[in-house]
Amino acid sequence: MSRLTSANLDAPGLSPDPWGVRDLSVDVAIIGGGLAGSLLARHLRRALPSLSVAVFDRAKESSFKVGESTVEIASHYLSRRLGLSTYLYEEHLPKNGLRFFFDTPERDAELTAMSELGSHSYPPLPAFQVDRARLEQDLWGMNARDGVDLRLGVRVENIAIDDRPPGKAPRSHTFVATPTAPASAGDEEPTSSEQVKVRCRWLVDASGRARVLARHLGLTQAIDHGIAASWGRFSGVADMDDIPDPAWNARVRYTHRTLSTNHFCYPGYWIWFIPIGRGLTSVGLVAEHGTFKDSMRKPEGLHQFLREHRAVSDLLTDAEALDTMSYGQLAYGTKRYFSQQGWYLTGEAAAFSDPFYSPGSDFIALENDYIVDLIRREVAGETREELDSRCATYDEYMHYRLTSTMLIYKHLYPMLGSYELLCLKWSFDIASYYNIWGYYYINDLHLDLRTLRTELRRQVPILEGQEKFAAMFGKLGVELGKQGNYHRSNLGQFTYGIEHIDWLDEIFAPRKRRRIMEVNVNLFNLIRERAHRVLYGPDAAVPPLDLGAFSDQPLI
After folding, report:
1. For a tag site, which of 110, 130, 345, 490 has the least CB within 10 Å?
2. Can you say how many angstroms the Cα of residue 77 is from the centroid of all Cα atoms in its chain?
3. Could you tell me how far CA 126 lies from the centroid of its own chain?
4. Helix (H, G, I), strand (E, B) or coil at 416
């Protein structure tokens, strides 16, 4: 793979000597040139071409990163806001949805014998599997050609936030950008050791888990969700679509399972297989701390654990491991996303929840939309009172989104290994995602203050409802375990993941609030009824409830 580095960047818009000045003034400075920062830079140049944008990143070349799977909100953002749909189809892979496989307690089932939750046709909303290294490299080139000042191989230090009260003089945040390594005899061209003092009107932290500005301001908050991950790239992974089993292939109408984000699910952990193109597959493990061992952070420990699962091992029979990475703790939050002082956080510089449903790039889409909208409104001359109110609302809404997202994963890991339980949980989660979050984003209601304030006024009962359903799913897992029925349907079954959603076309146009709530009530009753059947048998029946009754009565 070719590399785009600080030594070979010669695209129009870049100074041939990026270290030729001691001081740099720029409208928007972005710390971090990974996915969040590079997408934001492109977004700003498209939405506000009159503003100057500079990106600062420690890396000198793009590299492998986890987070290859996008879902619908992120894909909508990439296509609609950033004009990347043709590029994504040409250079990356279309995604055939999320797919889940289930095993025996002994972890010895063949892949074709496993029960499966997924699609049997191509998804109604597009999504992509991306090679992060290639995507970020290509975004560097696109942004440089579009006039973004891209500064690679630098670390950001000595940040000073301009916290003066708003006045006639524009704000001026400052920091120092220092080359990460001195010049060496082997460099293709000289690298100056000059430090550059940067002044900017708006400052964005997109530095990922380094959280450069977030750490400087003491913003990071712990989240009580103890999970760890280890992963790597493999070449030569077997093609599950080439398995010579006509009945198994016909089950999904010969659509491409390999193009899905494939999850192999077990109590307390899951294993992913994500194709990233050009013969490479990302394979990884996410587990609760009680299951995850420190040895799994090393190649030999990870590979040994993967091969303890027959279906996983079969896919890796002729595979070659290229690299291994890990995180000891995935989830964390932030005290603040956006500030009236003109600094913002996006992507993993702000927060991270859980990768099971691939929500990371959805959060980037929301945060970048809010950052661009706040800057656009300030440039357009909105009053300070209007800007401060909008900024506070966007910030509160992102906190609400993270809290809601974390409730999706509450009690999830102990029930992951049961086909019956996860099918039920998935049915609740995917319908909720489309009915509310997807609908709001596709119709730009996430930028409408009236809608946001209405949702924020209702967040307490909504979160309480999520909490109640999370507890119900957790109780189901415990009860099925006591009955000895946890694994009873893990072989030979298939569920089409959106078979219960007959209203999906509605989310592409405005709807009345009453209709959204009607869909919610129907969903709540459907999941409650199915939960009773899982626990008490197929003849169990419960009368439907209205919305208010769900807060008063036990669900099971």
Report:
1. 110
2. 13
3. 15
4. coil
Spatial distance between the Cα atoms of 193 and 179, rounded to a whole number of angstroms: 6
| Structure confidence at residue 550 (pLDDT) | 87
HSE-up of 487 (CA within 13 Å, CB side)? 14
Sign, CA dihedral 333-339-345-349, equals: negative
> Where do the structural domains in the chain lie, given as residue ranges?
93-129+226-327, 410-551
Distance CA 465, CA 12 (A): 53
For β-strands 173-179 and 154-160, DSSP reports them as antiparallel
pLDDT tens-digit series, residues 244-282: 999 999 999 999 999 999 999 999 999 999 999 999 999
243 and 112 Cβ atoms separated by less than 8 Å = yes
Measured between alpha carbons, how far is 301 from 311 in angstroms, rounded to an integer?
18
Q: What is the mean pLDDT of residues 501-508?
A: 97
Q: Which CATH architecture has domain 93-129+226-327?
A: 2-Layer Sandwich (3.30)
Token code pair at residue 339: 């500030």
Question: Is residue 160 classed as helix, strand or coil in its secondary structure?
Answer: strand
Whole-angstrom distance, CA of residue 240 vs CA of residue 275 = 11
The structure's pTM equals: 0.94
Say how many C-beta atoms besides its own lie within 10 A of residue 513's C-beta: 9
Q: What are phi and psi of 104, to 5 degrees?
A: -80, 165
Q: What backbone torsions phi and psi does residue 325 show, to the nearest 5 degrees?
A: -135, 165
Eight-class DSSP state of 121? S
Bridge-based pairing of strands 149-152 and 53-57 is parallel
Largest CA distance in the chain: 78
Non-local CB neighbours of 111 within 8 Å, separated by 6+ positions: 101, 240, 243, 311, 314, 315
Distance CA 272, CA 309 (A): 13
Mean per-residue pLDDT of the chain: 93
CB 99 within 8 A of CB 261: yes
Q: Mapping DSSP to helix (H, G, I), strand (E, B) and coil, where does residue 338 land?
A: strand
Alpha-helical segments (H) within 272-411: 299-306, 310-315, 360-379, 384-409
Q: Tell me: the pLDDT tens digits for 162-203?
A: 988 766 678 999 999 999 976 454 554 434 458 999 999 999
Helix ranges (H only) for 187-298 are: 212-217, 246-251
Q: Which residues contact 247 (CB under 8 A, 6 or more apart)?
A: none
- H-state helical runs in 232-358: 246-251, 299-306, 310-315
Percentage with pLDDT > 90 across the chain = 89
Q: What is the Cα 396 distance to its own chain's centre? A: 19
